[in-house]
Design the sequence.
């Protein structure tokens, strides 16, 4: 059985994951609107992954006999600027998610909830990868600058992203 404190903290994280999904979906729509279909596809895959993260936590709460409480989603931004600015925002967002997972882990440690600590190790590893993916793309964007041909090549490469 989950303690109320751990349950509340996981429900908050479920909200963060669904918001992440919503944010990346909005970024994807924006990229489509500026004819960057490859960037849009990459962000759609990310949108799907974030939804899976939320459901992973959802299923965990249920499996421990807890109660999932879904919260209202705030509206994400609709304009994101140039690709460099989009991926700066992606990296900043992922850093926030890493911080919230860390906070959640600390709650589970304080409550001596070992199964939750174990479950969260998957998320801790995932965040390392999520930040690295965003950093790699951001570094490439810094290299190519505003060069249209390079951006088109990146767009094509990002459009090849498949689901894990
Ligand atoms: Fe589910 Fe990108 O954190």
Sequence:
């Amino acid at each position: 059985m989950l303690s109320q404190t751990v349950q509340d903290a996981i429900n908050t994280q479920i909200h963060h994951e669904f918001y992440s999904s919503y944010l990346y979906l909005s970024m994807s729509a924006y990229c489509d609107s500026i004819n960057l279909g490859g960037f849009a596809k990459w962000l759609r895959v990310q949108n799907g992954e974030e939804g899976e993260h939320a459901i992973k936590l959802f299923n965990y709460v249920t499996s421990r006999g807890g109660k999932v409480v879904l919260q209202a989603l705030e509206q994400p931004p609709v304009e994101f600027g140039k690709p460099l600015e989009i991926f700066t925002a992606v990296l900043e967002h992922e850093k926030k998610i890493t911080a919230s997972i860390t906070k959640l882990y600390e709650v589970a440690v304080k409550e001596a909830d070992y199964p939750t600590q174990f479950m969260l190790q998957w998320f801790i590893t995932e965040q390392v990868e999520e930040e690295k993916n965003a950093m790699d793309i951001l570094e490439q964007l810094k290299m190519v600058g505003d060069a249209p041909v390079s951006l088109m090549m990146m767009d094509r490469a990002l459009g090849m992203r498949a689901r894990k």
